[in-house]
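[Solved] Which block belongs to which protein?

Original post:
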Amino acid sequence: MSGVASVCSLGEGIEPPEKMMMKKKKKERKEEEEERGLKAGSAKTKEVIVDYRRSRRTEHAPLLIHGEAVERVNNIKFLGIHITSDLTWSMNTAHLVKKAQQRLFFLRKLKHAGLSPQLLTNFYRATIESILCLSAAVWYGSCTAQD
């Protein structure tokens, strides 16, 4: 019986139930976004493609959000980690070393000011070691000697 009804409905220009449900959910999601002040869009969203195929001649289709193409980039910063499209960690390592060197300057200033070794160690652990160990489980195994 339902098969006949859906055939008749399609013939009369009425949408199938699946399509009606999708439209309803889309409308509800849009209302919820507006209510919360959220806006899903392509302005802030970035796309990084990691492709290890030998022949990279195939062009990837653009990612669309609300009909707008998302910007494609070669690297992004996600949760404090720099991720590149070739998954090398040299950019991430360089960034971590730069941050650690900036904080070492303050450690030297504190040492010259005459702070105790215990306070210097606490400062090092809180400000420098925490940076160097940031997500080390993710990137350490893939680092090269050059990094």
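(Second protein starts here: sequence line, then its structure tokens.)
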Amino acid sequence: MEFDIGEYSIWGTYRGGVVERNEFSRCIEIAMGGNKEGKELRRNAKKWSDLAEEAMKENGTSSVNLQAFANEILLGHNEY
């Protein structure tokens, strides 16, 4: 398991697709901790959250792309 946000990564080990309790706890402590690594992870998570929110707004990139896709499928042409 890996959480890669910006400069820092949190690597986790798992067996057969199941993350063990102590490894999960270690990764959460890093992400939620007050050290530089934890702050960087949270800052980047906030940045991506804000970008996703903007994309979902009316006339945001997701809205525009979804409309273009629907036009292509339903009408057989693009209207940008």
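Accepted answer:
You had them paired correctly. Confirming on the second one: Residues 2-75 form one domain.
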